[in-house]
Amino acid sequence: MRVSISPPIDRLLGGGLEPGCITNFYGPPASGKSLMCFCATVSAVKSGKKVLFVDTEGGFSAERLRQICPDFEFRKVRLFQPGTWEEQVKTIRRIPSESRGCGLVVVDSIVALWRIAINEKNAQAVNRELATQLSILSRVARERDIPVVITNQVYADLDTGKIEMSSRNIVKWWSKNIVELSHAGRTGHRMARVVRGRSLPEDARTEFQIVEEGIKEVSRLRLF
After folding, report:
1. Which positions ≥6 away from 39 have C-beta within 8 Å?
2. pLDDT tier at 157, thresholds 50, 70, 90
3. 74-94 pLDDT, tens per residue?
4. Are residues 133 and 88 in contact, defined by beta-carbon separation less than 8 angstroms?
5. Is the pTM of this model over 0.90?
6. How many whole angstroms separate alpha carbon 13 and alpha carbon 23?
7. CATH number for the segment(s) 7-179
8. Where do the domains of the chain lie?
């Protein structure tokens, strides 16, 4: 069963978050990545599901969730907040058992602690561990038949000047649906673009507005 985020994003995703696979939202700071996670969490809880939420950036906000849903049931959220890469390793390995009965798993973000931990000496081992974590999340999505949402950060490629997704090759391999978020040029407005979709048209886009209640349609929705 798909999990809703909001009407404009749901249409872009073909009806909401797809179960059985990882959906990856990536983009620059303040592009709406965590908001996607919060809106999906609210939707899952309102439909009676439990949510396992891994917050690696300290961005989990009870106040923001209450803005989106004033009567939000926090007891239905299992929250983990690892503060180091080693703690994230342990947390992700707990997800197969902790996710029993959950309707959604969220990791916001998958790379924040990875970026702190990785260096020239340990790059191979740390990247192998990241791939292992993504394989665990993918297996949970398939075996539980639920959506798994991860968020990712970006960096500027010095050779091409392009904005790229962090750990792009590893994350791209495991993410069946990848959505790029960006600023749309107007205050509070953002753009979502399908970069990869298991059953979605690539490069499809939609504009949305960030408001106190979450995500809102823009006055003239652009979906192309």
Report:
1. 5, 6, 9, 68, 214, 215
2. low
3. 999 999 999 999 999 999 999
4. yes
5. yes
6. 10
7. 3.40.50.300
8. 7-179
